[in-house]
Amino acid sequence: MKRVFIKTYGCQMNERDSELVAHDLMQNGYDLVNNESDADVVLLNTCSVREKAEKKAIGKANNLLSKRKKKKQITLGILGCMAQNLGTNLVDEVKGVNLIVGTQKFHRISQYLKKISTGHLANYQSRVIDLEEEEGSHHTINQHLSSSAEQVSAFVSIMQGCNMNCSFCIVPKTRGNERYREMSEICDEIKILRDRGIKEVTLLGQIVNAYGRGVFPRLRGESPFVQLVKKIHGIEGIERIRFTSPHPTSFGPDLIEAFAALPKLGDYTHLPLQSGSNKMLKSMNRPYKREKFLELVTALRSVNQNMRISTDIIVGYPGETEAEFEETVSAFKEAAFEMAFIFKYSERSGTPAAQFPDKIPKKIKEERNQIMLKILERQSEASNLKKVDKIMEVLVESKARKGRGELMGRTRCFRKVIFEAGRELIGQIVPVRIKVASSTLLKGSVA
Ligand code: SAH
Ligand code: F3S
Q1: Residues forming a β-bridge with 444
Q2: What three-state secondary structure class fits 269?
Q3: I need a labelling partner for 208 at 20 to 30 A (CA). Which of 116, 127, 265, 351 fits?
Q4: What atom of ligand 2 comes closest to residue 274's alpha carbon?
Q5: For the chain, which residues make up each domain, given as ranges?
């Protein structure tokens, strides 16, 4: 039996794609191992969104190949976004790579590995490259690993691609145009997960709330995304529905109201701002203004008093002056984001922003990053501290990674909570009284 190790870089969509590959390989007689040194086949599922992510994966690939010379002859594959982005250039960057597979071909990997291992050349010299588009490939991201009895939460891919073309972003190139799965297919998949004990689903898409636009009709003023969420809400046994990543412009009144009407949506959403400066937003090709964005935040907080909102921010975008950066700082405070991912702008070749003048020096990007991180820490800590002494509904996910056998769960507002209790609570929703809070974590005990 061949043993395969899959390493995943980047976002939840990549994790989901890796799960599909793992499932497919297991169906075809492979054994999944947790350690690269035990593997005959190593697959790197890669990310291209920032330069650092690509460098890391290339470094890893070359490191694995240098070991190959000394030790055994592993088969090495590079999958996903970086494969799509760099294409055949990877053959020079990673000499000896056997498999280069783009984002529409995950379901073909077992077939390609077979081809490689039965090739005329010695195993480690043959190569397959497939970066083509494939009609209907988005329908193939539908199988899950048969979960352990304790798995509580699962990712469900509802669409692929993104049509937005934000000037900084490589995703439209690596993931292609928007393609949506049918609602019935998605619901059937979720019912199977429910039957296996899954309590929470996270709907995935590069622009998840634009799901179905222009393809499925709006009904009763509701977008296809809200229609889908409502259908899933009706599936008994599914307790929570989350989604990532939404776009502010597809966040209509119907979705805002859904947060009031549908308890399973919980009290949390991600809402990527990117910049608080209208000039930067325009240059980023983000089709909303600071004011509209802040109105959306207010609307969400007014339909649900417990709403917790996270965001993405890019600092040091080409042309960002000190004053424009300060507008991001003020918008960040005004929106009172409770969590955020702060990124230093990373130039991606082939994107419009790569051609823009007035690049910001590394040192300034670093300074702005540090400023944002400090504000973020203050805001997250302040909001978490408000939860001390409160009783919160926690969906228990697993044993905590560190510590002395405590459990880890999430509140309705997606805060992580650590508390002491027996494993039999995994998968249940339990009331936990919060005792301690930091910027990233709550600790408590069963109330
Ligand atoms: N909607 C997508 C966004 C993908 S990129 C999704 O979640 O799948 C995630 C975040 O990375 C973006 O919101 C943006 O803040 C950041 N990002 C994208 N391109 C970037 C770049 N070139 N430099 C720095 N950050 C970037
Ligand atoms: Fe990227 Fe903008 Fe789409 S950030 S994934 S092009 S919404």
Answers
A1: 419, 434
A2: strand
A3: 351
A4: 4
A5: 3-130, 138-380, 391-446
